[in-house]
Design a protein that fits this description.
The chain is an alpha/beta fold. It is 31% helix and 20% strand. The chain has 2 domains: 276 residues, Alkaline Phosphatase, subunit A (3-Layer(aba) Sandwich); 112 residues, Gyrase A, domain 2. The strands form 6 sheets. It has a 7-stranded mixed sheet with strand order 4-19-10-3-9-7-8, sandwiched between helices.
């Protein structure tokens, strides 16, 4: 595309790329994974970007879950603008609890869609299919998941046989290879299709299972680094961030450290008088057992909210409780998609409904999860130096967000 072209999306202007731009979202990438990889000498490309490009930390969206953050990254805006408040929510208009993976829930345009309509060649590859339709909404181009790469069609995904791109077999959804498949497919798309802009979204299977410094985690980040090096050497402007971090959420004996909210609420307001929504909920519960550090509560009698918030806030393991207005203002969430109360677990505590409502038998290791403020810090890396104006802006930035990344890679790179 011509470098003079710009698109305006959600109050920001973006220059259309005049060379390939690749943005990678590493699901669940606590910054310590990068630090351990660098210290071990396992990530030489990342070390090069640290020396020659941008290596910073940023804040993700809270709830620090997959869907709201990926949509923030590709819209350049918080959930109050794009409407995706979690992986899962309660729709009061229908009385149903539903997965938030249908494009009808999206309230604004994505940067990817706008670029495609301006004539850019755009491609998206995501690990899990739950994100595909949201990320590809309104976009003209290629958009598929590695989870279902063997089911692609030209009409729906923009590519007939995505499996022709990669020699690997289509991986299990519960595997490190699911992320590698995304990167391998993205690299081949770059070489064969020459997209102007590409978004690659990985899965946090490894991060849920392995802490920073574990041999499996170091090997995974070394694999990522080899692909980062390949994208860099292919001439792409590469931006790297994450949707959220990850923390250990288990007792010393390995059992999950959980505050179950339903018994507490029944004691406070009576049985059946409150609804607990856990926005981490998605089809992939082996990762986390639907236990994260963010919950929202709908009360039959909203007037009880202040008293309930006070009592919950005094519970060990609960870090913060907000009413709808205060919580949505702080975290920039859509008020109509959040309950009367927002509850945040502390760094090492998750929130559940009741013991009977969570099948934890599939958890193979001590629980590692996310969702709260404690998992909000994420990497913000670019492989090239910034032009002077954006370099000065970055130096002054005291609240860099993961959803600023497209601004910097499209508008700020020399």
């Amino acid at each position: 595309m011509g470098s003079a072209a710009t698109v305006s999306v959600n109050g920001r202007n973006y220059h259309a790329p005049d060379r390939p731009v690749v943005v990678v979202c590493i699901d669940g990438s606590e910054p310590e994974y990068f630090e351990r990889g660098l210290a071990a000498g396992a990530t030489p490309a990342l070390a090069r970007f640290q020396r020659e490009g941008v290596y910073r930390l940023a804040r993700s969206v809270v709830p620090s879950f997959t869907n709201p953050n990926n949509l923030s990254i590709v819209t350049g805006a918080p959930p109050a603008v794009h409407g995706i408040s979690g992986n899962y929510f309660y729709d009061p208009s229908t009385g149903q609890e539903v997965m938030m993976n249908d494009p009808k829930f999206l309230r604004c345009e994505t940067i990817l869609a706008a670029l495609s309509h301006a004539g850019a060649r755009v491609a998206v590859v995501t690990a899990k299919d739950k994100l595909r339709r949201l990320l590809g909404h309104g976009m003209q181009g290629i958009c598929f998941s590695s989870e279902k790469a063997d089911q692609t069609t030209k009409d729906e995904h923009g590519i007939e046989r995505a499996t022709d791109l990669v020699t690997m077999p289509v991986p299990s959804v519960y595997s490190a290879e699911l992320s590698e498949y995304v990167l391998a497919a993205g690299l081949e798309l770059l070489r064969r299709q020459h997209p102007d802009a590409m978004y690659l979204s990985l899965t946090d299977y490894v991060q849920h299972k392995h802490a920073p410094g574990a041999s499996a985690a170091t090997a995974f980040y070394a694999m990522l680094d080899r692909y980062f090096d390949a994208f860099d050497r292919a001439g792409a402007v590469l931006g790297i961030t994450a949707d959220h971090g990850m923390n250990a959420k288990a007792h010393p004996d390995g059992t999950p450290k959980v505050v179950y909210l339903r018994p507490l609420l029944e004691a406070l307001v009576g049985p059946g008088r409150a609804r607990v929504i856990l926005p981490i909920t998605d089809p992939y519960v082996v990762h986390h057992g639907a236990l994260g550090s963010f919950a929202t509560i709908y009360l039959d009698d909203a007037a009880q909210g202040r008293a309930v918030a006070s009592r919950l806030g005094a519970t060990p393991g609960i870090a913060e409780v907000y009413d709808n207005a205060a919580g949505c203002a702080r975290f920039e969430l859509p008020r109509d998609r959040v309950g009367d109360l927002i509850v945040i677990g502390d760094a090492h505590t998750v929130l559940g409904k009741s013991p009977a409502e969570h099948d934890l038998s599939l958890l193979e290791e001590p629980l590692r999860s996310h969702g709260g403020v404690s998992e909000q810090t994420v990497p913000f890396v670019i492989n090239r130096p910034l032009a002077d104006a954006h370099a000065r802006r970055l130096a002054r930035a005291d609240d860099l967000r993961n959803f600023d990344l497209f601004d910097y890679v499209l508008n700020g790179v020399n």
